[in-house]
Each structure stands twice: as structure tokens, then as C-alpha cells.
Amino acid sequence: MTAARPARVLALDLGGTRLKSAVVEVGTGIVTGFAITDSAPDADAALAKVAAAGDRLRAGQPVDAVGLCLPGLVAEDGRVVALPGKLAGIVGRNVAAWLRERFGLAATVVNDAVAFGVGEARDGAARGHARAVVVTIGTGIGCCVLTGGAPITTGALGGGILGGQIPIAPATGGPVDTNGRHGTIEALCAAARIVDQVRAAGGGAASVPEAYAAWHAGAAAARAGIAAYRCDLARALVALAHAHTPSVIVLGGGPATPEAPILVGLEAEVNTALWPGYAVTVRPARLGDRAALLGLAHLTAAAARTPPGTEHEAPSPAPPRS
Question: pTM of the full predicted structure?
């Protein structure tokens, strides 16, 4: 990393349908060249889009390292261990080695929930909290547990990313998670369950925005369905809180906007079920689509300056913002 100026990281968030990219200045949090483009369903095509985005961002400005996140299990050497149902052909591939060869830069590859969590812990809604749990609600459930702004562990299963696989209801039927299991946090709290619950209550919503609009309009079915979903989400957050004892739980993803109906009364519902004397703050994420990119910048810069054998050391918590 260059010492004469803040380090700049080429940050790439590769999902199943979208690729988010930018250059992030470490320390200042300045994001330049931010763009969202379509991804691709297979590894070769998706990585070709990564290469094109990286070339665009590097033109006219120096960068010091490259970081990429994706929604799968990633080994510490940057090899993709598992990625169910997305980016065909990428499992077993060492994406970090490909990035180093393609861009000639030090490279870091991590799970996207870890990157998102670090972004929110260092620069967003969990800033200043010694222990935080960050949960993203989307097609599945992402989860990251952080201490001092860093994931609790490293490696393919590090960072508490399997929180969505925790059972919170009998496995006797209903929706399934990405592993085909019933009754887990992911099975019951993925974004599609909001629509399912509203329909089960007699509503006709076809999407989360439609369900939310009906709730705001006072529709009884939307109110009942979202209350049922909120009950499952509260049970999920209670399980995560008792497991990890955070002072804050941050909710991200499209359904978790600050004005989202699922957040109304959620913190009180969670705290009612916690161990007596223990309470947790529940709040929406602040950084949106840039959270994972900011987290990648921190993780990539930390990897570049961390001596071998000290990878599990966490930085001091970022001070709270006023």
C-alpha cells in the first residue's frame, strides 16, 4: 500500500444478478466511480464483467489492491467452497488468484455478508459498537457477527455467516432455506416470506413493495401478514442475540429500509423475549448498496498490512459518530 496518500481499493461486489463496483479510499471512505451493472449466471461470464468493471475504474487513477465479495463460502486463500444456485462453475475456483493475475494487485475475496457487515460496523449503523450482528434480508438471509469492527473469525465458515441456518421452528413443512431445510431463520425470514404471509392472510400483494403499500394504506390482510412475518423475524433476532450478545443488530437488504413496516415495534418485541436485564438496539443499515464495498476496502487493506499468524486479531472499535 502506498503511504504518501490514503490507500485505494478496487472493490467489487459480485451477486447472482448484479455487480456493484467502485474505488474506495481507505480511512476517508470516499467512493469514486460507483456503478451497478448486470452480472451473469456463470463464472466465466461474471468474471469477464468483473474484469471490465475493474479496467474502467482503474483508468485514470491509481489503485493499491483489489477486493471482491460474493454470496458463498470462501476459504482464506480466496477459493470458493460453496455457492448454491448461483454463478455456475465458480465452486472450487481460486478467485483471489485470478484477481491477482488479472489486475497485478494484492487481492482479497470474502463472503458478501461479511463485507456488508464490516461496512456497517466501521462506517454505518453499527459504528462504535464493540459487538454487532448484521443481518441482510433478501433471496436468503445473510449474517455477520463482528467484534471491534471485524468478523469474529475468518475462513469459509468465519464471521458467523451461518446464522440464517439456525432452526427457530419445527422442521415439519413450509418454505425451505438454501440447503433445503425447513424451520430455519432463512426459510422463515427471507424477503419472499413477507409476500407469502400477506397472501396467507388474504391479501393480493405480488411483491414486498406492494405488501408495504397495502400496509401503509391500512389493509387488514397486509397488517396481519406483516405482523406474522415480524413475529418470525423477532424470534430469529432473539436467537442471534442470545447466541452472540451484541449491543446492536443491524438489518439490511431491500425490505429493511428505515420506514419498513417490519421494523415497527420489532425492537420492543425482541427485547421482551431476551434474558432479563439484557437489551439490544435494532436498527436499519445506513450504507445501502455501498456497504459491502466499504467493508471490502477495510478488509483488503487489513489483509495487506496483517503479518502472517495474526489474522484473527480485531482492530479497536471505531468511535461512534454523533
Answer: 0.92
